[in-house]
Amino acid sequence: MTHVHRLEPGSAHLDSGTVLAAWERFVQGEDQVPDVRPLVAISWHRCREQYRVDPHLTEAPVAVAELDHTPEHDAVIAELGFRAASVAYEVGSLGGVVAVTDATGRILAEWGDQATLAKAADPHLAPWFCWSECAVGTNGMGTALEAHGPVPIRGAEHWCQALHDWVGAGIAVRDVVTREPIAVLGLCRWRSPLPPSTESWLANAATMTQCPLKKRARDSGAELVAAYTQARAHSGAALAAVDTAGKVVIADEMASVLLGVPACTPAVDPTLRWNPGLPELITAARYAARQAAHNPDWIGSTQIFAHLADEPTSISIRPVFSFGRLIGNLVSFGASGGAQLPQAEGAAHLWAQPRRLVAMRANRMVLLRLPEVSFAESQGNDVWLSTDQGRLRAASMSLDKLEGELADVGFLRVHRRYVVNLSRIREIERGPKGELSLVMDDRANEMVPVSRRHAAAVRRALDI
Fold first, then answer.
1. Between the chain's N and C termini, which has fewer beta carbons within 10 Å?
2. 19-32 core/surface letters (b: 16 or more CB in 10 A; e: else)
3. DSSP secondary structure, 404-462, as one string
């Protein structure tokens, strides 16, 4: 994309017609669309089943949600605006448009070919209109908010029929700690393919924009360790420092047992921080972040089920700031000082309950009812589902995310590599050293190991 002015426009032919035929079948209720890319098929599934977007919608709605941008997020949006403006002439010379949206999909600014911008006015491809997937269905910018990496959407791959003459691509720049989107950089053309270098340019732009975020996150990790060290010198309670996503940066010996993480081992780099696998702690950390944004002196308390504990443990949460910016929380175990977290908030779901799980078989999307799934297993970079239809690769690329989506619908993390459907456990086997294994109710009676740190949670869940 750096040399986009050297590229010639492609053919106006957007697809062979097979995708359009698949789209027509899918909007009428058919599930199997083998001629469609998995990323698109999964997006269509969200649009139809979860967001219920009208495929005959002709224009984007006015954006009603306006996020409170942190200075750090404002800097990301400004950087993406600079990158978009720097290629506006080259993109415009090919009849294209480049745009920047915020994390809600609201277009903030756009540049490019004036004739294309005039065509874009009809579907409201313009500032202050919302292009999230839940607003207008599958599209380059909106679907980028739901995925990682560059997302190209061509012709009839768009969910809304009114966009079938467009080709677009987008990429989300994400917070390196929470992995939540901050903004999107997108390009589109009318009835013509994007230059071949589009995806690599988008990926490079996102990587370069995230570089300062990564450095700042490492600095914040070091500052959290310093705050922990200072608090540890004045407190005898079990103590841990967690980032804004609820991941552990450092924990003392007692807290490490409750969290199931290594003791006194700093994890400054955000990619190396410990995931305790405690949804209640994540909920509490995010609630604390919202409260601290309005009241920096806020301190809260609640109860969570920690590892190796048969009863809920009281915790106190104290936000940690650096130059006015929230960087994480200090969590004291056995303490109850501060405002009590509302029960509804403490039990709030972090993700919407899924109606079905999505898996892939070759180039087909398989929609699974939850009772069909025995367990999920992380293997390398993939998550595999053991189901009544056999072993299938999950559309989700993260066992942590899958755990969060299924935690309150009868699924439980029992091992760093396994999440099981509690209703599909047939037998429990105890090893010679007291270790547990779960015999699943499937054709092969597969066995799933239970790690020591998850044994107490399994016993509580099964009431044994």
1. C
2. bbebbeebbeeebe
3. HHHTTTTEEEEETTEEEEGGGEEEEEE-TTS-EEEEESSTT--EEEE-GGGHHHHHHHH
The CA distance from 42 to 206, in Å, is 23
Is this prediction's pTM over 0.85? Answer: no
Q: What's the CA gap between 463 and 107, in Å, rounded?
A: 51
Query: What span, in angstroms and rounded, lies between the C-alpha atoms of 82 and 27?
Result: 39
Lowest model confidence (mean pLDDT) among 121-130, 135-144, 385-394: 385-394
Report d(CA 43, CA 158) in Å as an integer. 9
- State how far the Cα of 362 lies from the Cα of 116, in Å rounded to an integer: 38
* Beta carbons of 39 and 143 less than 8 angstroms apart: yes
Q: Which amino acid is at 139?
A: N
Count the helix, strand and coil residues of the chain and give each as a percent rounded to the nearest 5.
35, 30, 40
Q: In angstroms, what is the C-alpha Rg of the chain?
A: 24
- Please give the C-alpha separations between residue 184 and each of 98, 212, 285, in angstroms, as whole numbers: 11, 17, 26
Nearest Cα residue to 438 out of 375, 351, 380 = 375
Question: Strands 300-304 and 357-361: what pairing?
Answer: unpaired
pLDDT tier at 67, thresholds 50, 70, 90: low
CA distance 208 to 198: 15
The one-letter amino acid code at 423 reads S
C-alpha to C-alpha distance for 129 and 133, rounded to whole angstroms:
13
Return d(Cα 293, Cα 70) in angstroms, integer.
10
b/e code 78-89 from CB counts within 10 Å (16+ = b): ebbbebbeebbe
Tokens matching residue 147: 């995925």
- Smallest CA-to-CA distance from 358 within 19, 41, 97 is with 41
Compute the Cα dihedral for 94, 119, 202, 66 and give only its sign. Answer: positive
Q: Residue 106: its pLDDT value, please? A: 96
End-to-end CA distance of the chain: 60
Q: Are 127 and 108 in contact (CB under 8 A)?
A: yes
From residue 214, give the alpha-carbon distance in Å to each of 77, 222, 269.
16, 13, 8
Per-residue pLDDT at 23:
95
